[in-house]
Amino acid sequence: MKAKTLEESAAVRSLVALAQVQRLRAFRALVVAGAEGLTPGTMAEQLGVAPSALSFHLKELTHAGLVASEPRGRNLIYRANFAQMNALLGYLTEHCCQGEACAVTDVGCSDC
Length: 112
What we know:
The protein is mainly alpha-helical. The chain has 5 helices and 2 strands; from the N terminus they run H-H-H-H-E-E-H.
């Protein structure tokens, strides 16, 4: 399966959505939760944020395509959109290492 190609405007929307501490924390919590996802109540409790504030942040992440939700009974389940996340990572690294396979190194890291 071919990876999704991200347009520049979509990459910018995703980066803007992640450029806020609470949204970044919420997205990371959803990444950790995986396919199981999380309810807003569980996320609010885990992150120590008011449910109303979390709702605003989830809306922004959803608008950027990084998060999706689905109803389950009386709750909404939020999940990270891994295809969008991977497309963003691909966009950011598309031309790294001058088109060659990248070898990750710890150059300059004395603690690694």
